[in-house]
Fold this protein.
Amino acid sequence: MKKTRVLILGGGFGGLYAALELESRRDPTVEVTLVTQENFFLFTPMLHEVAASDLDLTNIVSPLRKLLRHVRTFVGEVQSVDLTAKKVTVVHGFTKHAHALDYDHLVLGLGSVTNFYGIPGLAERALTMKTLHDAITLRNRLIAHLEEADTECAKSDRVPLLTFTVAGGGFAGVETMGSINDFIHEALPFYPNLKPAMIRMVLVHPGEHVLPELGPELGRYADGVLKSRGIEIHAKSKVTAVTPRTVTLSDGTTIERFTLIWTAGTAPNPILEKVALPKERGKLKVQSTLEVADAPGVWAVGDCALIPDVRQPGAFHPPTAQHASREGAVLARNLLASIHGRPREDFSFKTLGLLASIGRRTGVARVFGFNFSGFLAWWMWRTIYLSKLPRLEKKVSVALDWTLDLFFPKDFVQYLRIDGEPQTASVRPAPEYIPLREACETKAPAIASPERAAAPVSLSFSSADVPDYNRL
């Protein structure tokens, strides 16, 4: 019996939950393949806690092969989509060779990428916070700057070394700022040459207050809490230019720094530009059943889809994790209904709540229309996200990490060493990198004496030359 081939592109919340729903139904007439760049699912709401050493990096990722036992996983990078031939080209492996994957139904859940808005120098010099690699890189950068600033030879560069700028006042920016501010100040007692007055934290955002999604009341509360902890907030400002040492803002301010964390914009995945499908605002136009308009058999979910809200004509569902996970489940049910000729359902979901952690066991939350702030909101943030984390094993690991964090200081071990960055006058340049193959193929220098080169070499050893390890 020929099976209907379903190809899901993207392993984020939308793609994963579509695959989980299809797996739970175990339709023998359907063959499902999930294509993803990583072999794990990243729980992004806890990403900033990895950067701040609150959680071990492995505790917020779940191996896809443990989550999906009956859905095929293909780790690779999507290169192109041929809607006419119903093929997707994917490259993978050490040699980056290509595969053509056939499909009968295609699910597009490719998510979004960071948008740098063409600002000069930004893409080359800013850190981002979208992937596990981003969180680890930021953590290493924080520790590297503390280590460098503590030395006497870097005394003249302590101001830019200990200045950390976050651009973006949404959830990612505020949570990142709150977490790294805690991390840096908890680390200071272990660096004798550094004092709290040397630390400068700057948050830049274009609105009147941070976290505009939560409304003015909670936004102003978050503003006040962050300012009380010494964080500079530049409201109604944007980054206009970036150099190796400075950030220029639209209000004329110039900030001397070496670290800029960019969380101020996203854009749909560039692969969508190569696909001849109806779009609006760069996203795929999707019907309420999550099927792409005028493209039977093509579905879209998550950040790359513009999904109409049937409860509010003219409105669209926001690109949040709680929406994407539910969109994925509804999409899977509608896909199966389409295969078997059953009626499909409209996607309809109202946001249950929005929560943010702003550091030092403080948070803000709006749940079922009610506002919460302070320790209670922080506790709600942790409780709710812990319940949403996939797999019991990860829940237990995160709970243990949080418990240990109550009694012990944070860990300041670098996972990777950063050589030659930032490029200050006091930092030695990194040694030249020589690829292994090139090093192996490098010829040895000629021997000065041909006679010595031709002479045989003999080696002899006596028992006295060999150490007696039994006597050590």
Remarks:
- The longest strand covers residues 30-36.
- DSSP finds 13 helices and 26 strands in the chain.
